[in-house]
Amino acid sequence: MTTLEEDLEDAAAAPRGAGAVHPGVRRARAWLSRAVEPGTVDLWRYVEEVGPVEAVRRLRAGSAPAGIRSLVGARVAEDATLPDLRRAEACGARLVVPEDGEWPAYQLHALTVAVADEPLVRRDQSKRTQALVPPMALWVRGPARLDELTERSVAVVGARASSAYGEHVAGELGHQLGERGWTVVSGGAFGIDGAAHRGALAAEAPTIAVLACGVDRSYPAGNGALFHRIAEDGLLVSEWPPGCAPLRHRFLVRNRLIAALTRGTVVVEAAARSGAQATAHRAQKLGRPVMVVPGPVTSALSVGCHELLRDEHVGAVLVTTAAQVIEAVGRIGDDLAPPIERPGSPRDGLSDVAARVLDACPVRTGVSPERLARSAGCDVLDVLRVLPSLELAQLVEWTGTGWRLAPPPKPPGAAA
């Protein structure tokens, strides 16, 4: 069993571009994933500058800049990399790093662009729970490739204390998106998240749950069976190593990944202050479409949704079907939603004169064309010209003494 320092030294001496990721590189990123909380701007920049192996070597040796060492603090002397990797392997998980071919580089590039706008002075930077910083590594549980599942993916998020209406809509969206070959990404929570995941699974489609704890833990515990099903065909994803607890601040940090890994975010239900709203705002900052399902104006669970629609800066789009969602995130011209089907009526397409004559017809007693002409405000010849077409359309009938409205057709199977 080699020590962390030995693996790092070996990785530092190994030639770059040799194909497979060196175990020392993976171990360095495993150490970073536990040593520093995700979303830290300065540490991510430091790792990008010197590389993960050199960053860990300097941090462990105490030669890194003081400001960088302060971000690690007391964790610098700890090394749980081998137990973390073994624990991941035991539950069918793996550590995916930026050096892997499976890394979703295209999807996460928006985070790289966003973090470039962060100031150099730490006190002027965004709060860690709000900063749009790329992940150091991702712990992934499940058989699918992360880059392939996120290539065509949509985030469906919303309230934990959801209504029956919200869960129904989320389930339908998840099912319809799954049927059309799109991956549903959510947070695995109770309420809207769980309904969206279950909808996708019901369509026998993979789905991704981005967790705020280790991928070997079920939080909430009541969704344990759901997480097991997700891991069979989809993926459980986390920035935190196995065994890590779902601390409150980690949910806020996690939201940026849900927004970044997907082509757009759909908010089904959200209170005036909610994590779903935070995810939507992060999606907007990353240049991803934000979509909102409307709800009753009397429902507190739809206040956040309606506020997103009212916020011109967010530019949210109202959606009610999966087809409308795909139109917003899909390829221009190829994924257009079909027009809404409206119920037809025999009156559709009638000319102005025909519509006026039809409105002039009585219900019971038949009247003469002359009387219809007076009521409709047109010439008798015009009445005689449109009556045959109205009769063929079964809108009017001749009684023997005059014209009247035809009775509505009886439904099939009704008694004569």
From TrEMBL:
Domain Smf/DprA SLOG residue range list: 133-329
Alphabetical list of InterPro entries matching this protein: DprA, DrpA_SLOG
Domain of life according to the entry: Bacteria
Family designation: Belongs to the DprA/Smf family.
Protein name: DNA-processing protein DprA
